[in-house]
Amino acid sequence: MAETLVDIAGLEKHFAVAGGGWFSRRKLAVRAVDGVDLAIRRGETLGLVGESGCGKSTLGRLILRLVRPSAGAIRFGGVDIATLEGAALRAVRRRAQMIFQDPYGSLNPRMRVADLVTEPLRIAGRPPAAGYRAHAESLLQSVGLDAQHAERYAHEFSGGQRQRIGIARALALEPELVVADEPVSALDVSIRAQVINLMQDLQARHRLTYLFISHDLGVVHHIADRVAVMYLGRIVELAPKRALYATPRHPYTQSLLAAIPAATPALRGRRVALGGDPPSPLAPPPGCRFHTRCPHAIERCRREDPPLQAAGEGHSVACLRADEIGPIAIPLIQPGGRAGR
Fold first, then answer.
1. 3-class SS at 97?
2. Distances (CA, A) of 38 to 49, 100, 150, 232
3. Helix axis angle, 159-171 relative to 132-142, nearest 10°?
4. 186 near 103, Cβ under 8 Å?
5. What span, in angstroms and rounded, lies between the C-alpha atoms of 209 and 211?
6. How far from 208 is each of 69, 96, 100, 176, CA to CA, in Å?
7. What is the residue extent of each domain of the chain?
8. Contact assessment for residue 14 and residue 70, using Cβ atoms and an 8 Å cutoff
9. Which H or E run contains 72?
10. Cα 338 to chain center, whole Å?
11. Quick one: DSSP state of residue 171?
């Protein structure tokens, strides 16, 4: 088994909000991430999936310490960075970078591309031996752009090209970990596969570790080695890609996979009906957080909060009835292979 690069234990992030109207002193908390245990292995791509608002992006930002956790530990290379500040935190951040979702909003429109991609080096005080301009051109070429693009501005590029610039910027400090937060969701379908394949090529070339955050299970299928499924601030299932896509164990995962559109009726798997909307993270339900929508919920599910526990080789699930329900074969996506170019 590969070495663990990031080890998360009991991680929580609660955002305080005012409650009860304009003049109320009552305080509420959005439990965005609420007790996550997770390990990211060196050299792998861990896919993180779930509905909008489940806490995926917050978890990614916690791992990079862009936000401070409310509780828990984040061990990066064996060092707990949850409470680090100042120079110690900056040193860790050089080893981990982020690719943002919006290639239009994440690039400074006032800076030339050469300055955009080398800005991390300037901030870190690490001037490249060949000079900033030459290094910028090298980074751009590594992501499939021409060296002459270094003198242009971000608005002169398409969405796919802008995301390549964002990837080049993320690689400037030669990080060990890259958190990719919905990196292709804002791109045309025809461009997504190109960016995914680029990320895979760069991972092999630079021995990168990815946390790939997405709500698109088709995209995650192409790039991930393991997949973690998140619901209302918690990890509810974690498994190797092949196992999770072929035989999901948690009813929520089953419903997500069964909802993927199929090209032909013969490929449509068994549907798992869900009722209602996700509960508010301001007031998660007692017991299993999924019981309000789960078609298999019983009275015990309303009382007991299931831990994430082993359900097979490399497979973990947080469901009290996982053994009774059993896996459901959903032949919608066949595991394996790269995205088409």
1. strand
2. 14, 22, 39, 16
3. 120
4. yes
5. 7
6. 25, 10, 17, 5
7. 4-42+54-95+215-325
8. yes
9. strand 71-76
10. 19
11. H
Taking only the tens place, the pLDDT of each residue in 106-164 is 899 999 999 999 999 999 888 888 899 999 999 999 999 999 999 999 999 999 999 99
Domain at 4-42+54-95+215-325, CATH class: alpha beta
- Please say whether the beta carbons of 36 and 71 come within 8 A: no
165, 154 Cβ separation under 8 angstroms: yes
What tokens were used for 303? 């009382």
Q: Which of 275, 230, 169, 228 is nearest to 39 (CA)?
A: 228
Alpha-carbon gap, residue 9 to 73, rounded angstroms: 5
Find the mean pLDDT for residues 91-101. Answer: 92
User: Would you say residue 299 has pLDDT above 80?
Assistant: yes
Task: Name the token pair of 105.
Answer: 């909003």
Verdict on whether the full-model pTM lies above 0.85: yes
Tell me the residue length of the chain. 341
CB neighbour list of residue 189: distance below 8 Å, 6 or more residues apart: none
Other beta carbons less than 10 A from residue 336's beta carbon: 10
Tell me, what amino acid is at 11?
L
Compute φ and ψ for 18, nearest 5 degrees: -75, 145
Relative to beta strand 71-76, strand 226-231 is: unpaired
Q: What is the mean pLDDT of the chain?
A: 88
C-alpha distances in Å from residue 166, one per residue of 162, 216, 251 = 6, 20, 36
Say whether 167 sits in a helix, a strand or coil.
helix
43: Cα separation from own chain's centroid: 15
The residue assigned the tokens 């910027």 is 169
